[in-house]
Amino acid sequence: MNSIGSTFEPAATNGAGPKQTGSIPTLKLSDGNEIPMLAFGLGTALYNGESDLVVNSAVTAIKTGFTHLDGAEVYGNEKDLGIAIKKSGVPRSQLFITTKLWTLSTSVGAAFEASLERLGLDYVDLYLVHWPQIADTPEKLQQVWAEFEAIHASGRAKSIGVSNFLQEHLETIFKTAKTKPVINQVEFHPYLQHGGLVDFHRQHGIATAAYSPLTAITKAQPGPVDDIYAALARKYGVTTSDVALRWVIDQGIVAVTTSNSDQRLQGYLSKIPNFSLTPAEVQEISHLGKQKHYRGFFNDIYGSSDRR
Question: What phi-psi label fits residue 61: left (phi over 0), alpha (psi between -120 and 50 degrees) or beta?
């Protein structure tokens, strides 16, 4: 797979997107590990889903060619993901498994052990603090991160990072961190670009991952990017979903998506590696997207006009 450094600049500014080799590119993280830039997510459609549905969907994704599987404690399906990994027959070493910490009913270490047990794994490739609100004070958030660093040092999480963090939350853990997060996974699509957050990530060697990258298509229509998505889909002979995912990847951002459709998953893996948007096209989608604001998650925490 093609590797793109974690300092990769968006195509819209440096004129160079990921080189395609017929497979999903990988992004080199600041710790030297590589992460596939298209992930099959087990949240949203599979959140607390029926066990058979989750297992079958994950097995299909793996057999289709997805190697990056994005799970979480709060999704309620880590056990099903573990079953799917074994059922797929694909060697563990060929997969990239992410899970996330949601609650602190006991300790970070105990929660991590419970996740490993449910997954049936000895280690995960990436362990994330799922949201900064897991801690009610800056000091507690710093302590959570210190415990993540200990897990990383043990080798049972090859990389560690965060999710749903704003710049202020990252700056809080920077004050005491021995190791910075390698990635921050956030809701990211044309209607929620988070101001200067992605640039802040790049300045500090932190990769960005995007969940809900298809929001402009699945939840927020009609909108200002509808026409350009459709035009680019016609130009490249792909779907509008392919265009939406490519807009993310061409900015050096990991895209996390999901589907219960075998055909759609196969389409992603056959089409997305074989085309890329021009810098001008990436920039135009970004520009049009800023004309509308839509947040699909955490609206109880952030105000309706908060674009961070």
Answer: alpha
> Cβ atoms within 10 A of the Cβ of 196, count?
11
| Contact predicate 115/130, CB 8 Å | no
Q: Which residues are part of the catalytic machinery?
A: 75, 130
Each residue of 7-49: pLDDT tens digit? 334 333 323 334 344 689 999 999 999 999 999 999 865 655 5
Number of Cβ within a 10 Å radius of residue 158? 19
Q: Which two tokens stand for residue 5?
A: 């450094």
- Nearest Cα to 265, choosing from 27, 48, 113, 45? 45
pTM (whole model) above 0.85: yes
Angle, helices 78-88 vs 108-119, to 10°: value is 40
Residue 107 CB neighbours (<10 A): 11
